[in-house]
Write a structure and sequence with these properties.
single chain; 223 residues; alpha/beta; 9 helices; 8 strands; 18% strand; globular; binds pyridoxal-5'-phosphate
Length: 223
Amino acid sequence: MSIADNLAFIRSGLPENVTLVAVSKTMPADKILEAYNAGQRIFGENRVQELLAKKPLLPEDIEWHFIGHLQTNKVRYVVPAASLIHSADSLKLISAINAEAKKTGIISEILIQVRIAREETKFGMDPADVPSVAADYVKGAFGNITLRGLMGMATLTGDNDQVRKEFTFLSEIFNDLKKDIFAGDPRFNILSMGMSDDHHIAVEAGSTMVRIGSSVFGHREYN
Ligand SMILES: *Cc1c(COP(=O)(O)O)cnc(C)c1O
């Protein structure tokens, strides 16, 4: 199966309101161009250096999403390069993104990454802390950020019930915020959840954006 076939197959299984982010981490520019030529325009990268190296090699109308853990000292590189940062996972990081966006003279679009998985190693904001950050945002604490929604990663497990429980939990937080805090703000409308192996469950639970790598490009080889 070619990358174009893979993309067509994945898209055919997604509802129309769900956006596909092709996760191109570790993939060389020619593979990304192959996906681009098949109509894909949104790509996800999780390492700052890799994003900065690939972006100039590829068409300018690509939307690059940053999906990896972001350290505050790398924020200044990511803010001008990424059209959406999925992985804002602390107040400190959100403040740093806001400050950098202000300095650059742009508005950065972000998602708050929420910790929903059982694994201790997964990054993300504690779910209990999300409402107060969202409330600060709505009060105008971050003038150079648009908070577009939430992102989460489920536990890596074959236990589909567990995965469904975690995605449903995040979906409920998203819907509660939408109703209680963002009432009337149509920009808070992205729920980023679901990867190659669990995106069907994520979509059933209300995902509006899936991040899919290996099912598009094939298996990654890390060095
Ligand atoms: C790698 C990665 C993905 C895609 O994973 P696949 O299993 O290859 O689809 C999605 N989200 C994040 C944050 C990732 O790092």
